[in-house]
Specification:
Helix content is about 35%, strand content about 25%. By secondary structure, the chain is an alpha/beta fold. The N and C termini lie close together (about 10 Å). The structure holds 5-amino-5-deoxy-1-O-phosphono-D-mannitol (M6R). The site of 5-amino-5-deoxy-1-O-phosphono-D-mannitol has 18 residues, from helix 9 and helix 16.
Amino acid sequence: MCGIVAYVGQKNAYPILINGLKRLEYRGYDSAGIAVANDNLTVIKKKGKVAELLKVTQKIDPHGTSGIGHTRWATHGAPNDVNAHPHSSRDGKIALVHNGIIENCDTLRKALIKLGHVFVSETDTEVLVHLIQEYKTRYRVPLEESVRLALEKVVGAYAIVVIDQDEPQKIVVARKASPLVIGLGNDEFFVASDATPLIEHTKAVVYLQDEEIAVLEPGKKLAIKSFQNEPQKPSIVELDMKLEELEKGGFPHFMLKEIHQQPETIADCMRGRLNAKEAWTRLGGLEPYLDRMAKANRLIITGCGTSWHAGLIGEYLIEGLARIPVEVEYASELRYRNPVINSGDVVVALSQSGETADTLAAIQHVKEKGALIYGIVNVVGSSIARVTDAGSYIHAGPEIGVASTKAFTAQLTLLSLMAIQLAKAKGTLHHAYYQELIRELSEIPNKVRNILAKDEVIKDIAETIKDASNALYLGRGYNFPVALEGALKLKEISYIHAEGYPAAEMKHGPIALIDENMPVIVLATNMSAYDKIVSNVQEVKARKGMVISIISEGDRQIKELSDYSIEIPKTIEPLTPLLSVVPLQLLSYHVAVMRGCNVDQPRNLAKSVTVE
Ligand code: M6R
């Protein structure tokens, strides 16, 4: 949530800041702003997207070799020009951008008002910049020391960048529980919330650690200290990312590009981890812990949103194949409960971004209980990747569209590999079935390609539901979490209210909603519950609901019962979600485009939810 950029060096900061903000816009787009240091501090900020900010900045064309920028996802205060970042100190000399939440801002604000401070915005961030200035003038200390003193008083989560007109060639950054990356250039420094704006400038980065402050000054070495004022050795990492991964590559939206990338991203996730000919799977991150996991009392899978849905499928996979008990819990619930977790358990944290605040907090919460914590993450070097004891990357590449698509199927691929490897270690599968699973998994990328080729058919079906107010998604077994995911995709990007249900639960309530205006999307590929699905479809038709079924190739019976059908290639049941979710992603995408929605940046959402 919220994107931060900064630059200090020899170049003009303004274009670097604007480009950086465009790259980070997926993190929040309620408002955007920049501050550039020249003879004084030029602060320009505007409600809305970076494009709105550009209309103003283009006229001013601010010059200066240091600056900070921000794209906002509103927490404290409405999205408007005043609440937009950067925020300035009382004397206007210090400006600050912030990602996170300052929980004790009301107490701090009251104390500062008593000292004569006047606030113009409703934000917690403005309180912090006033506090920094208060210490700077009171103790006559350098900027970094006044930042450190101010942060001693702050409770909450933050990544901040501070610039001071009195020391214009210096930038001070600090973080606690919100991400911040420093790019090392040639006598220059870049800062961003994640690596995406940095890659066009440098590949050498330092991920600032929790409770660290860094001082960035051209001509000097990067200086990092802990909040306790102890010098820290920066650990320089080489970014493994290509610029073209951050572009739309000819597609109208990132979401469509990412849906179409899935044959490659699924294959990338399996690369070096599966050999169909020799019939083995091997997750390097799992190997040292294989015995501990295979003998675990239980696995607790946690995550949020789409990652939580992937976790539910993980439960079906790991219990079904490896016979290890699994529970799946929302990270936002786990973090505030007092769960019974002990050293014989394994907690698996799933996250695309690796920065989701609830998932991070859940990990911290269960850490002292002695369980092994295993991360399944996409973004390399992210906070969750760093705080977990062990883990595997899903290798989906940067996912920019707010609606998660390719990360979901890569998570499922990783969980399938994990379940198969655990099953092998436990000896719970017949060898022939083990071989079949591996062979089928290796075929998934081709089968996804086959579904993507049906895009036009799916687009036509989207036309028939684009004006619906509600939609119901039904699935059984492995397809039940896919129904949840399909409903989430539709609601988050098209704003149509949608619910996912286990198909059999329909008659316990949702059936009351069904009439001729209700599209019901039925995931009907499970051979094990085929007759039951047929009955569910008949029940919907009996109430005049419109049935759109996702069926296995060649299935005539359900096709005839349905108003519309999308045929997908056959596979074995545990791997079905990897295929059945793809038409649902395309369906949501086309409906949202037809409704004129901003597919990549849906209202009120942000890609990386780094606040509670
Ligand atoms: O980065 P994470 O996987 O931890 O994110 C979790 C959710 O915020 C995310 O999946 C969200 O639900 C997506 N918008 C779904 O498309």
